[in-house]
Amino acid sequence: MSKPIVAIVGRPNVGKSTLFNQIGGRRIAIVDDSPGVTRDRIYTQAEWLGRKFTLVDTGGFEPFSQEDIPRQIRQQAGIAIDTADVIVFVVDGQQGLTPDDIEVAAILRKSEKPVVLAVNKLDSTNLHDERFEFFKLGIGEPMIVSAIHKQGLGDLLDSVIGHFDTQNAEDLQTDSINIAVIGKPNSGKSSLVNRILGEQRVIVSEVPGTTRDAIDSSFLFEGRDYTIIDTAGIRKKSKVDEDLEYYSVLRAMSAIKRCDVALIVIDASEDIAEQSVKIAGMVHEEGKPSILVMNKWDLIEKDTHTINEFRKKISEHFSFMDYAPSLFISAKSGLRVNKTLEMVDTVYAQYTKRITTGIFGKCLYEATASNQPPSDRGRELKIYYGTQVSVKPPTFVLFVNDAELMHFSYLRYLENYFRKTLCLDNVPIRIFLRGKSKQGR
User: Fold this and answer.
1) How far out from the chain centre does Cα 63 lie?
2) Is the pLDDT of residue 27 over 60?
3) Which of 135, 259, 374, 402 has the most CB within a 10 Å radius?
4) In this predicted model, what pLDDT tens digit does every residue of 362-400 receive, in sequence order?
5) What band does 88 get if pLDDT is binned at 50, 70 and 90?
6) Domain endpoint, select from 103, 135, 169
């Protein structure tokens, strides 16, 4: 299941960053008493009751200010709201309801996103009645928290994750294959999108996506529906000015969460950058399949060894996702662009493939016969049987005597064996163990 995005918003100095740090489990955001300290986006991965999500901190929202920095912060916070699945609206319980709170609440109501209202700084039980005036905001029941003392965070997070299932169910209600086109700026993403759409000719619709800079282009090709999610390029933070591009990573994360297949576009005329590897890592962590699209191949001087040398580079940089196929194209000239959707179809078929318990059982038997399970201090791992429990990505459960006896290297062996034998060689797969001690991967 894809990770939902949870955005923390509110006016300056209400304790958003402190709350962010407490939920994230470590000091990530800068915490200061001065308003406006958090100007750019900060995000981290968080988990509550086994539910993982991406948590986003935002700068203080000043809806009435016309100054440049508050205006930019409003734009950044607006993007966070657009990309979020759930919004945590933080207010200051000691200071009470303000005109800015009322204006922010109005903006959140218009977003039609689930909102959890956190009344912060109510450290003493004598102050708890202060929350009642926030009912006037009209966005639900105010929840008492003290971010600095970690009070009320459990109830707050219970409310947040309570919205996840509904959001994810809505995301999955589509018959179209969703393709996210992501990568560094100037790698040729928009050219690739335009080339694909231009060649297909049968464009059904072009409507704004869930993010402010993304366009979801839906089209029909050879009887199949596709939707391309185009995104802004992902830049290193050090190379970005204080503007909307601060949220380029967040926008791409939203696109990855919604996609079925990711096209990771890389400029083949340059060395493979660390940022491209990080982008691929984001896709891999979401359990989404990807295709490494080496663009601008027409600019490369080639000989008989060129393609093999490039494949070796790809293998070295993207060793953690050795299942991802690669495609060498030129979006500008159209070289091999026609192979893109063909490869998307192949990957998607594996991503949604179901294996019968009988076939998987036979595969598991052959794998363990070829390479015996490990043992530790005379205790041998026994794998009784296994079955597929879900798709997107293909996910399997192995029932064992003791999950702690499973060594990482043997789990990796099984993963590779399943991928090769069950024709899942181009997608990530997940294996979970069920035994006396539970462990998953």
Assistant:
1) 29
2) no
3) 259
4) 999 999 999 999 988 888 999 999 999 999 999 999 999
5) very high
6) 169
Q: Are residues 59 and 132 in the same domain?
A: yes
Do 281 and 373 reside in the same domain of the chain? no
Q: Which residues contact residue 245 at a Cβ distance below 8 angstroms, ignoring those fewer than 6 apart?
A: 232, 235
Between CA 416 and CA 363 the distance in angstroms is 12
The enclosing domain of 313 has a CATH number of: 3.40.50.300
> Kind of pairing, strands 326-328 and 290-295?
parallel
Report helix, strand or coil for 232.
coil
Residue type, 273: A
Token couple for 123: 């450290």
Q: Are 242 and 39 in contact (CB under 8 A)?
A: yes
Q: pLDDT for 282-330, tens place per residue?
A: 899 899 999 999 999 999 888 888 889 999 999 999 999 999 999 999 9
Among 351, 378, 413, give the residue marking a domain's end: 351
Contact 92, 121 (CB under 8 A): yes
Residue 224, beta-bridge partner list: 221
For residues 340 and 366, membership in a common domain is answered with no
Contact 244, 75 (CB under 8 A): yes
Which residue bears the tokens 């009642």?
Answer: 132
Helix (H) or strand (E) holding 281: helix 274-285
| Cis preceding linkage at 70, omega within 30 | no
The reply to whether 9 and 100 lie within a common domain is: yes
The strand pairing partners of 208, in sequence order, are 215
Same domain, 239 and 194: yes
Residues recorded for the chain: 441
Q: Are residues 294 and 185 in the same domain?
A: yes
The pTM score is 0.67
Contact of 344 with 291, CB cutoff 8 Å = yes
DSSP assignment string, 24-67: HTS--S---SSTT---S-EEEEEEETTEEEEEEE-----TT--S
Q: Do 265 and 295 meet the contact criterion of CB atoms below 8 Å apart?
A: yes
